[in-house]
Specification:
The chain is an alpha/beta fold and about 200 residues long. The longest helix is centred in the C-terminal third of the chain and has 17 residues. The protein is about 45% helix and about 10% strand. The relative contact order is 0.19. It starts with a helix and ends in a 6-residue tail after the last strand. Helix 9 links the parallel strand 2 and strand 3.
Length: about 200
């Protein structure tokens, strides 16, 4: 995927989220696919925060999980969670989109030497609010599977604040997304992207 595919970059970001990484990026290079420019934007926006992490290398594996609507909307709830855990389930029949990997996909996942922590991140609230019990069930199952395959490996999670929380009310969606991008850039020795745009 290109950055443009992931973010659907346009002048819209400049108008609606002028202080976001997406807007910084668009101002710096338009909608070109330039990861070095994105990295520079992240460093500029979070320079003060990065000073706190001096001499701390990125040491985690960060796995982005598609959560929320892909497991918890009304149509997806018709399929038992166990089906998603057993095999790939097509998002729309005949549509050719599979967003949620079955547990067997994690059985083949190789953890690089020296990695002691995996962070599962995603947004269980996306499109469904707090009606996201299946997303949390999926995360629990993935956590158990990774711990079974890699005993002693620490598994952590990173989710946005829940809808209606104080932090959610005080931060724009763009700032929450920017913080996730900074987190991945500063903490992930390896980043595993999910299916679909994030």
């Amino acid at each position: 995927f290109t950055l443009r595919d992931r973010w659907n970059l346009s002048a819209w970001h400049l108008t609606h989220f002028p202080n976001s990484l997406a807007s910084m990026y668009v101002r710096a290079c338009g909608t070109q696919d330039n990861w070095a420019v994105l990295s520079d934007c992240v460093h500029r926006k979070y320079a003060e925060k990065d000073k706190e992490r001096v001499n701390q290398n990125a040491t985690d594996v960060v796995i982005h999980l598609r959560l929320g609507d892909v497991l918890d909307d009304d149509d997806r709830r018709k399929v038992p969670l166990a089906e998603y855990l057993r095999h790939w389930v097509e998002y729309w029949p005949g549509g050719g989109l599979w967003y949620v990997p079955p547990l067997s996909a994690y059985a083949r996942f190789k953890i690089p030497r020296g990695i002691q922590r995996v962070i599962l991140m995603g947004n269980p609230y996306f499109g469904v609010g707090e009606n996201c019990s299946r997303s949390f069930g999926y995360v629990e199952a993935v956590t158990r599977e990774l711990q079974r395959i890699h005993p002693g490996l620490e598994i952590a999670t990173r989710f946005p604040p829940p809808p209606g929380s104080q932090e959610r009310r005080t931060l724009e969606e763009s700032e929450l997304a920017d913080r996730d991008i900074h987190f991945v850039q500063s903490r992930a020795a390896v980043f595993v992207a999910s299916k679909g745009g994030i």
